[in-house]
Write a structure and sequence with these properties.
- By secondary structure, this protein is of the alpha+beta class.
- The protein is 53% helix and 13% strand.
- It is built from twelve helices and eight strands.
- The chain has a six-stranded mixed beta sheet with strand order 3-4-5-6-8-7. A two-stranded antiparallel ribbon has the order 1-2.
- Strand 5 and strand 6 form a beta hairpin.
- It is globular, with a radius of gyration of 19 Å.
């Protein structure tokens, strides 16, 4: 749908990635990328992002552009001869290191500094966004190698990595479940603004409605649950947050989004789950 006043909103479409699945078109990462540039990047001394970026700009979109410029300066000596997916791997490693830096910095301060916390939020949103893109694109044989990518440099690094990796896995599960439902017209991945400021991971368009989906990953025996909130919830928590996020997205984009909370379960027997389950399709189908 994605309509306002009968006209297609080009601004929304241009600022979001439309998910298109191509059969038998999954890519692979060459071994030397993980053995050479990734290893070198993990041991390179990094400068923090200039905090002026987070003081001057309040918009997550502008802040993410500043982070990308910082990343380009660091990565320029590594990316020659790499494929787009391999460059994405290096961006993920760099964002993971920056995210860990701000986690460590916040712990050192012993209290929440607004600029440090904002840097943590933006780098985390950008990291999960890129992990989602990578997991949607690569061959399934690469999943274990990607999972181990960020779990080699101490407990804090592993903890930060697991949070963002499992979050990305949950989004991928929801995308695949939506894609398997014939009532889904279009799926759009969120941008850093949607994630950091609205708490929205996906937008889904149908012929008669548009959905804003917040995805959460929890240890639960239920593989997938999805709840729609057409009216403001009375209780505080995730339900209230996704409802408020959909309202903010409506005000920003001029599109009426119906908020949906999707909770993706993991049973703890495996470190992650990227399989498409029948329960995923059924649970998401009920809100479509």
């Amino acid at each position: 749908m994605l309509r306002k006043g009968g006209n297609m909103l080009d601004g929304f479409v241009l600022s979001h990635r439309l998910v298109l699945f191509q059969p038998n078109d999954q890519t692979r990462i060459r071994d030397f990328v993980l053995e050479s540039p990734v290893r070198a990047l993990y041991f390179e001394t990094l400068d923090p992002i200039n905090e002026v970026l987070f003081r001057t700009f309040r918009d997550a979109y502008l802040q993410s552009i500043g982070v990308e410029l910082h990343m380009a300066e660091v990565l320029k000596k590594y990316i020659g001869g790499l494929t787009p997916i391999e460059r994405l791997v290096l961006e993920i490693v760099l964002l993971h290191r920056l995210n860990c830096f701000y986690i460590s910095r916040e712990r050192e301060l012993g209290q929440q500094d607004p600029l440090v916390h904002r840097a943590l939020v933006i780098t985390g949103a950008m990291l999960q966004d890129r992990l989602t893109l990578l997991l949607l694109d690569v061959h399934g044989d690469e999943y274990d190698r990607i999972y181990n990518l960020g779990r080699q440099n101490g407990q804090m690094s592993r903890d930060s990595w697991d949070v963002n990796f499992l979050g990305a896995c949950a989004v991928v599960r929801v995308v695949r479940g939506l894609n398997a439902n014939e009532r889904t017209k279009s799926i759009f991945l969120s941008n850093p603004l949607d994630d950091a400021d609205f708490g929205i991971d996906l937008f889904v368009s149908r012929e008669d409605r548009d959905l804003a989906i917040s995805v959460k990953s929890h240890k639960t025996p239920d593989l997938m649950s999805a709840t729609i909130f057409p009216f403001q919830p009375l209780q505080q928590g995730h339900e209230q947050q996704i409802f408020n996020g959909a309202v903010l997205a409506k005000d920003y984009y001029g599109i009426h989004f119906i908020p949906v909370l999707a909770v993706v379960g993991r049973n703890g027997t495996q470190p992650f789950d990227l399989e498409l389950h029948r329960e995923d399709v059924e649970a998401l189908g009920r809100v479509l």
